[in-house]
Every structure is written in structure tokens, then in C-alpha cells.
Amino acid sequence: MYDTAPAIRRIVVFTPRGPLSDAVLERLTSSARPELSAPADDAVRRSEDILADDDVQSALFLLYASAYGSVEGIDPGSEWDPDLIRLRRSLEEAFEAALRAQVAMPALPEPTPDAVARALFALVEADDSPSVARHLARRATAEQVRESLVLRSVYTLREADPHSWAIPRLTGAPKAALVEIQADEYGGGRPDRMHAELFAQALRGAGLDDGYGAYLDQIPAITLAAQNMMSMFGLNRRLLGAIVGHLAAYEMTSSIPCRMIAGGLRRLGFGDEVAEYFDEHVEADAVHEQIAAHDLAGGLAAQRPELLPDIVFGAAACLCVEGRAGAQALAAWDDDRSALRPGAGS
């Protein structure tokens, strides 16, 4: 028997990071109706880099949190508020444009499962982003490991959810492939084996808070951008190819790094309850990467060739943004600084 008692719910403390996120938070959590278009226009206009803009990315995160129901205190009725949807679309337009400008696109393969899988593996192999996993395995301090877990928490405590938006939008073999992957992510029917729960266990074992959003104020904008990118790809049906490509690249860059991280955790004396999440992904993602590359991404390209450019874009965008987030953390650690944003609870 599994414990089916409802989890304790709590309101997450989220400090706005500028006029836009302040207005969005007020609109989502109160009866006030602050004006949104002017602060949105100002935030986008003044931003030198949308992907690393605290005000824009925190506002987008809050808007997506309304759809997920992941942050307590947000009125469920706000999910379909026309003004907030209009705002989200405006910010997404700027965010997507910035992504497409920054992401280097390789030549497109033929739209066949084998050709797409080969191209995606080649894309991952060519990625030269600095390796956070290697640092955690060989050089990281225990505090840096804890910071890495905090940085992961914004996605991993909701692991698989952004990609699951694609399930009803797929048909046939690609849909079956995604469901096969997601079934494992959600524990194969066992709540205690859900990957998000294994990660919560890791947080507790490392002496950290396992509540979703406990560290939101300390998550840098580029890490929020990585989560927001998944949400944007998943929630917009026109970006179906991008969320599929993103998942393929995400799975293909997981197995070996997780083995390295598990070794680093044990090097520093963390117990099996912390390492188990990473141990689980060593074998699971070695299987998932094949399914995601060939049956899901390649299968979708064969079924709907017009989505091939976005499949490749989604994979390349995953590598680009995750690479930027990792490089930022490593630069901080190399300078003996925290990789976290100064915030509540820091």
C-alpha cells in the first residue's frame, strides 16, 4: 500500500525581480488588476539578453506556473485570463526570437528515423559546452553539489511534466514512444519510483528543502529560461517539433553525466539516498535516448516532415541553453562564488 494522504501545501515566497514580474505576481495572486502591457514592453525593450533577464524570465515562469499549478497562492482562474494569455504570447514572441537568433542550426537530415537519430547523436557529440557533471565528479565541494541540486530543482521536482504536454498532440508510433518514456519518468505506476520523488529524496538526503519552489528566489534567470523554454515548447502546439527535439537531446545528455555525478556524490560522502536519483538515470536514459532519437523524433519527422526543422531546433536549443546555464555555474565555482542568485533564504 502506498501513502495516499495529500501532501502539505504551502505558499511559495517569490520576490519580484522588476516591474514586470511585480505586476504579474500581483495579478496572479490578488484581485488587483495592474496594467501589464507597458511594463512588458519596457522589460523587452531594455533587455540586452532576454534569456538572462531576471524580470522577463521570472514573469514568464510565473505565467507558466499558473498552467502547471506548481506554485501555491496563484488563483486557478488566472490560467485563462485573456490579459495574461496576451502577455504570455508577447513575452514568448520575444523569447523565441532570441532563442532562434542564438541557437546555431546544423544542416537538416533526411526525414527518416535513422537519419534523424544519427543527426541528433552527431549534434550532441559536437556540443563543446563545459561539463558540470565532470566538475561534480572530480572537483566540486559538498556545498557546490548542494547548489547544483538547488539549480536542478526548478525542473526536476516536476520532471517530465513539460514534455508530457506533447502526448495528446502526437499520434501513432511517436505517441507510443513518448508514452513509453514518460511512463518510466513517472515511476511505472509506483509513486515512490517517480523520478521527481527520487529527486525529492536526494534533496532531503543532502539537507535541502524538497518543496517545489523553496529556492525560486535563488534560481538565476538563465536556469529559469531553461525551464521556460520547455514550457513554451510544450504548451504551444505549433512548437510540437521543438518539444520533441528538446526531449531527445535531454535524454541523450543524461546517462553518462548521471554516472559521473553519482560518483562525485559518493566521493564527497553523500549517501545512496542522494545518489539513487542519478543511479536510476544511468540505465533508464541509456534506453530512453534511443527511443527518443529514433522512434520519437525520427518517427515524428517521418510522419510529419514539415516539423523536421523544429525538431532539430528544439534539440539544438536544449544544448545551447543548458550549456549557458552550466557555464554560468562553473564560472561562479571557479571564482569561489556561489552559483545561486542572492535571494530569500541565501
Give keywords.
single chain, 346 residues, mainly alpha, Heme Oxygenase, Chain A, 2 domains, 15 helices, 64% helix, disordered N terminus
What is the compact description of this entry?
With 346 residues, the chain is mainly α.
Secondary structure: elements and pairs:
Layout: H1 19-29, H2 37-46, H3 54-68, H4 82-102, H5 113-126, H6 132-138, H7 142-156, H8 161-164, H9 172-185, H10 195-205, H11 221-235, H12 240-252, H13 255-267, H14 272-303, H15 308-334
Task: Describe the overall structure.
There is one protein chain. The chain has 346 residues and is mainly alpha-helical. It folds into two domains: 19-102; 113-334, Heme oxygenase-like (Heme Oxygenase, Chain A, Up-down Bundle), CATH 1.20.910. 64% of the residues lie in helices and 0% in strands. It contains 15 helices and no strands. It has helices at 19-29, 37-46, 54-68, 82-102, 113-126, 132-138, 142-156, 161-164, 172-185, 195-205, 221-235, 240-252, 255-267, 272-303, 308-334. Helix 12 (240-252) packs across helix 15. The longest helix has 32 residues, at 272-303. The chain is globular. The relative contact order is 0.15.
What gyration radius follows from the Cα positions, in whole Å?
19 Å
Q: How many domains would you count in the coordinates?
A: 2
CATH superfamily of the largest domain: Heme oxygenase-like
Q: What amount of the residues lies in strands?
A: under 5%
Percent helix: 55-70%
| CATH top level assignment of the largest domain | Mainly Alpha
Order of helices and strands: HHHHHHHHHHHHHHH
Shape: globular
Q: Classify the secondary structure makeup into a structural class.
A: mainly alpha
CATH architecture of the largest domain: Up-down Bundle
CATH topology of the largest domain: Heme Oxygenase, Chain A
Number of strands: 0
Terminal Cα span: 38 Å
Question: Assembly state here?
Answer: single chain
The largest sheet is:
none
